[in-house]
Amino acid sequence: MIIEQVLENKTNYKEDKHSEKPIRSIVKSISWRAVGTIDTILISWIITGQVNTALSIGAIELITKMILYFFHERVWNNIKWGKK
Fold it and tell me: Sign of torsion, CA 19 23 26 30?
């Protein structure tokens, strides 16, 4: 069911760029990263009981996740599977 819906609603870049501007994607990416980092800080605080440690873990996680995501995207950009 889900796959059928995705395939039925499939658009190309020209159509998609009009439905969602790149700036919207950037803001969504930043907001999602903020949510993920806050989650990591809260979990770290609960586990360690130390705010400074939790903030340190969150800061490191923020940077490493962005770097990992960049390389993840670069690798997937070279994979032909699912592309036309």
Answer: negative
